[in-house]
Predict the structure.
Amino acid sequence: MRMYLTMFTLSLAAAVAMYAADAKAGKAAYDTSCKSCHGPDGTPNPAVAKMMKVEMKDLKSSDVQSMSDADIATVITKGKGKMKAITAVKSADDVAAYVHSLKK
Ligand code: HEC
């Protein structure tokens, strides 16, 4: 019994560490590939919105936060409206996890 408990605790710790690593890798990719348009914390860069003549949603807003990781990953890999696909991002899932961590 004790052994099972130890194993369970260990796998739980591994899962938590894995999740943290994802969002951390996602932050690095976000800072490189998204920050210039979406701001350091998800607040849209007004100059970009003006230049592209589009209303950009705050990534912290409930509209974006209610999107699933998969939906956000699709926006990154396929683009959406005036946003072109961001091909430099290796793991869109990591970035999606990071976007969800921006929640207020
Ligand atoms: C060149 C500027 C630019 C870059 C770089 C960029 N975006 Fe965008 N993004 C936009 C614009 C503009 C829109 C709004 C598109 C529209 O509504 O036509 C948008 C929309 C979005 C949306 C959808 C919000 C909605 O309106 O439903 C998400 C999510 C998003 N971006 C995430 C990201 C992530 C994550 C990255 C980095 C991997 C990124 N974007 C990189 C300009 C950019």
About this structure: The helical segments are 2-33, 35-38, 46-52, 62-65, 69-78, 92-101. DSSP finds six helices and no strands in the chain.
